[in-house]
Amino acid sequence: MGRENQTWMSEFILLGLSRCWNTQVSLFVLFLVMYLVTVLGNFLIILLIRLDSRLHTPMYFFLSVLSFVDICYTNSTVPQMLVHFLSARKSIPFHSCVLQLFISLAMGSSEFFLLGAMAYDRYVAVCHPLHYTAIMHGGLCLALATGCLGAGFMNSLMQTVIIFQLPLCHNVINHFACLMLAVLRLTCVDISFNKVMVAISGFLVIMLPCFLVLFSYARIVAAILHIRSAQGRCKAFETCASHLTVVSMCFGTAIFTYLRPSAGSSAEQEKMVALFYAVVTPMLNPLIYSLRNKEVMSALRRLLGKLSEKK
After folding, report:
1. From CA 287, how far away is CA 38, in angstroms rounded?
2. d(CA 177, CA 127)
3. Contact (CB, 8 A) for 282 and 42
4. How far apart are CA 68 and CA 62, in angstroms?
5. Do residues 45 and 300 touch, judged by C-beta distance below 8 A?
6. Per the database record, which ranges form the G-protein coupled receptors family 1 profile domain (predicted)?
7. What pLDDT is attached to residue 291?
8. Are the CB atoms for 125 and 294 separated by under 8 Å?
């Protein structure tokens, strides 16, 4: 039955964020600006880290991977959403819907694992500064980044295959994109097993990295409190402030979306939360890491200085 429904259902209709034309035009302008800021900001972070040798450290290596993930995540949903704002018929082909869910879920899962790896990097930097270079060598950093991406894609593949094996009753998705919870609402069978899988996936992808972050920062805070000079404590805290801000946004949004009781959720609330995670968070990440980071700002000034000299 599932296969028959999938063969017959060649496309899905997305209801989007609003049916009012004037509202959709306003949203198009707003999200187009946010999309451009997101892509350009994250690309600039990657470029600065690539070009400035002073930023060739584990911390900035993970930041460049995070920026790459944010670009991919944003591009998996926002361009289609922008097109649909100006379209009378908001449809998406079946295979495009599957691909969108797979990529967005893979990138989202990878980001949580990356934030956990970045917390471990900050833990080593603050708690074991003399051995930092030896511990966080290039091979380990590459292995951690590859493992984060691999785990994210494996989780996404498992969830996507399970979801699209279910028989679907209709093809109208009350969302702006093909996201996991929205697609699950289309099924016409009992999805108790899928809810269990979502809960298990949420624990592994969200809570395990969250526990690693909490453990790392508990040790970091303890180490900072043992630093005698106020200047030393301030410097140690500054190295973690940007990451801690991003962690709070990402994990807070994800826990609100996936780990709260389903009875207390609604499609409209999930749209707003998903919108924040898909558009706002990737846009804020480069701003947080640049405005709160003296090394990134210095690298930007050096790059602008070189460009002005060439002119």
Report:
1. 9
2. 42
3. yes
4. 10
5. no
6. 41-289
7. 66
8. no
Q: Using alpha carbons only, what angle is made at residue 243 by residues 239 and 244, rounded to the nearest 5 degrees?
A: 100
Query: What's the CA gap between 209 and 135, in Å, rounded?
Result: 20
Task: Round to whole Å and give the CA distance between 114 and 133.
Answer: 19
CB 208 within 8 A of CB 116: yes
Q: Cα 62 to chain center, whole Å?
A: 13
pLDDT averaged per 10 residues in sequence order, the chain, 311 residues? 52 89 93 95 92 90 94 94 92 94 94 93 90 93 96 93 87 90 85 80 85 89 80 72 78 68 63 85 84 77 78 62
Look up residue 164 and give its two tokens.
Answer: 């699209």
Rounded to whole angstroms, the Cα distance separating 238 from 14 reads 43
Quick count: other Cβ atoms within 10 Å of Cβ 60?
Answer: 22
Q: How far apart are CA 157 and CA 292, in angstroms?
A: 36
Per-residue pLDDT, 259: 58
